[in-house]
Design a protein that fits this description.
Chain A is of the alpha/beta class. Chain A contains eight helices and seven strands; from the N terminus they run αααβαβαββαβαββα. With 122 residues, chain B is an alpha+beta fold. Chain B is built from four helices and four strands.
Chain lengths: 292, 122
């Protein structure tokens, strides 16, 4: 079953029956609740017990919005699927929901929103469903309008399922161009099932406030979804800011291929220098397939 | 849709320079009780465009908001109650939001405003 984004545009994919299926699946409800809690945590709102005005972009049937309400906040939700929003109304969510296309811009006054979350939605912007839909224009409109409506110092946390690196980078690029600073927090990077990426963006220049927390799964803690326990490496999660250091290219001076011994020697050298080197394992310098 | 949301919405049709506030035409609205939180009201007050809130509340038959409002009034319980009622307890179920510049109507059905722009408006 190909991913939803490859099957149909969101307003068609999330029709009445799909919307109902989505909202009544206890598994989906639990996952969405967990992701929403994490996104809210990453928003880093002040701990002053004052309710905030938040956005839920791609709010769907209100699963994520419920987490916001449970934490006492007021929220405005956007979704492109009428079917999903109908269910939200049926479930009597406490936030206001709007039928809208985030790629057309959010249409909010400047500086009025205290924070924004988006759960599993922003990647839809990368797919051109109509000939007039140019993904780049839509990403630009979305991030531009999001940046404008957020108050200074407010954050946007976007959990998304990018299809590949190109998509992640494209999304990040347009976020940066709109003026955001920030990076990616990856929870459970080693588990294909549990892995979640959160794009954490801050309005305004990078500062101590914009320092990102480590992703979950850093300190050897295993997530409950983990069913393959063959990884004993605990690599540092890659959090990249606007200035990403270029990867060094391996130069092959000899005619022969480099081999495992050379790689291990080099790594030891780097460690002695004091550089951050991933630990050696059975995967180090393993022969890869030609097309890797 | 509550008036809190209405107060934040602006028309973003291409070429429109001043799309705020959207005029509220309400055919059906209800009152839903919500707990009053003074801290929230005091926090959101600076962000509210008072004249827009006033006009929208009047469109729903609520005329008890003062013409002008400033932060000093936030210490009055009476003012907070009226502010709270207008902002959070009035829900528009059916009606429309009208762009002040182009006259384009965004319909509201079942409390959900349809803000989708047509191809030529983007």
């Amino acid at each position: 079953m190909p991913r939803p984004e490859l099957q149909a545009p969101p307003e068609i994919f999330y029709n009445d029956s799909e919307a109902r299926k989505y909202t009544t699946s206890s598994r989906i409800i639990e996952i969405q609740a967990r992701i929403s809690e994490r996104a809210l945590e990453l928003l880093n709102l002040p701990n002053d017990r004052v309710p905030k005005l938040l956005l839920d972009i791609g709010c769907g049937s209100g699963l994520s919005g419920e987490t916001l309400s449970e934490n006492g906040h007021h929220w405005i939700g956007y979704d492109i699927s009428q079917s999903m929003l109908d269910i939200a109304v049926e479930r009597e969510v406490e936030g206001d929901v709007l039928l809208g296309d985030m790629g057309q811009g959010l249409g909010l006054r400047p500086g009025v929103v205290d924070g924004a979350i988006s759960i599993s939605a922003v990647q839809w912007l990368c797919y051109a469903d109509k000939s007039s839909h140019e993904p780049r224009m839509r990403l630009k409109a979305f991030f531009g309008s999001l940046y404008r409506c957020l108050a200074r110092g407010a954050r946007a946390v976007l959990q998304l399922y990018a299809e590949n690196m190109n998509q992640s980078e494209m999304i990040m690029t347009y976020a940066m161009r709109a003026g955001f600073s920030g990076g990616v927090v990856v929870d459970w990077p080693h588990s294909s099932k549990a892995r979640k990426e959160y794009l954490v963006l801050t309005c305004g220049p990078a500062s101590l406030q914009t320092a990102l927390p480590k992703g979950k799964g850093e300190d050897g803690e295993m997530c409950s979804d983990e069913d393959d326990s063959d990884d004993d490496e605990n690599q540092t999660v890659g959090v990249y800011e606007r200035n990403r250091p270029r990867k060094k290219l391996k130069v092959n001076k000899k005619g022969k291929s480099k081999g495992k011994q050379w790689v291990l020697k080099k790594k030891e050298q780097m460690r002695r220098k004091g550089n951050d080197v991933p630990p050696d394992s059975k995967y180090t310098a393993r022969k890869r397939k030609a097309y890797f | 849709m509550r008036l809190l949301t209405h107060n934040m919405l602006s028309c973003n049709i291409k070429g429109v320079t001043n799309g705020f506030p959207l005029k509220l035409e309400a055919d059906k609205w209800v009152t839903k009780e919500v707990d009053l939180n003074a801290d929230f009201l005091r926090g959101i007050f600076p962000k509210i465009e008072w004249s827009a809130l006033l006009a929208a509340a009047r469109a729903l038959g609520f005329a008890e908001l003062p013409e002008q409002a400033d932060a000093s009034m936030l210490s009055s319980d009476d003012f907070l109650r009226r502010f709270h009622h207008a902002l959070l307890e009035l829900h528009v179920e059916e009606g429309a939001l009208v762009c002040p510049e182009t006259g384009r109507k965004f319909p509201i059905n079942k409390g959900i405003p349809n803000m989708l722009l047509h191809e030529d408006e983007v």
